[in-house]
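Re: NAP structure - here you go.
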Amino acid sequence: MSLTDQQTEMLAVVARQYGGPSSLRLDQVPCPTPGPGQVVVRVAATSVNPLDWHTMRGEPWIARLGSGLRRPTSGRLGTDLAGEVVACAADVDTLHVGDRVVGGASGAFAQFAVAKAKNLALVPPEVDMVQAAALPVAGITALQAVAAAACTAGSRVLVFGASGGVGTYAVQLAVAAGLEVVGVCSGPNVELVRSLGAVDVVDYTVDAHLATVAGPFDAIIDSVGTLPFRRCKQLLVPGGRYVVVGGPDGGRLIGPLAHLLRAKVAFVTGGRRAVALMAKIDGASMNELVRLLEGGSVGSVVDRVVPLDDIAEAIAYVETRRARGKVVVTC
Ligand SMILES: NC(=O)c1ccc[n+]([C@@H]2O[C@H](COP(=O)([O-])OP(=O)(O)OC[C@H]3O[C@@H](n4cnc5c(N)ncnc54)[C@H](OP(=O)(O)O)[C@@H]3O)[C@@H](O)[C@H]2O)c1
């Protein structure tokens, strides 16, 4: 029996125009049907990423080239999901109805969402769906950032933004890879970051330019972008990598992309390299993260769990940039 035989409508978060969280509605919309290579997932839980508030606001404006210039074309939000497969396209043979899965989808802030089968991983029964739902965007970004740092066991890496969604995974993944991690976050989160395995943690509210930090580092993974490039270069070994994950707002037109471009220019000289990360969700990375979650070398740091009804508040909270780890939404 297909999903549509059982249920034709569902609740989904819809933004009819760009704006703040008050522009979001929980509407009844048709249940999705899978296209080629796709499955439909009954969403158990999803999680909020900065991508969601950027999409909600239509900022930076350059992103509207893909999402609709004056108003959102689909209006649907949400990428991360964990849930159960309820329908598969005829050409999907890797997943089956009833499978527990996690990964990336479009319109995941809903009771059901459609996803490419190749972007999902199976979730073993002993793995909690809330823990799994926190993983996709932040976990994959952290996994790919650690890979982009190109470090070998014993290397030293500085993680700036260590208490955020990406940072909490980046610290744990770097530690799991045998790297020596120094984290940077605000005072109230120092113990959290230490508990994730960082050998040292710096409170940037006390030491903004990391004057007390003893370099050098083989790599810096930065999801904040407030440390001056000159200081980043001083802290890196010759040939060391500055992995740019995120940056300050940088204006409405291109937003955090401005930071990526400035980093590329700043690192033209000095014998260190800036690597601009554009994370991409794929099944292989999802499988790797689920394996690490199941094995216990990575855990999702969950700031709070809220119901879908409270999505506007959840997005507003993540937009404050004060979330500790991830905000998970149960559907
Ligand atoms: N390149 C990519 O492919 C990619 C993928 C995903 C995300 N991103 C970007 O990466 C960034 C981080 O994502 P996320 O999910 O980790 O976001 P997040 O969870 O919202 O990050 C929140 C963290 O940022 C820290 N923070 C906020 N302001 C800070 C400041 N002035 N100085 C130092 N730390 C500060 C906070 O730490 P304290 O409270 O301890 O200060 C908080 O823990 C975002 O800009 C996002 O858009 C990029």
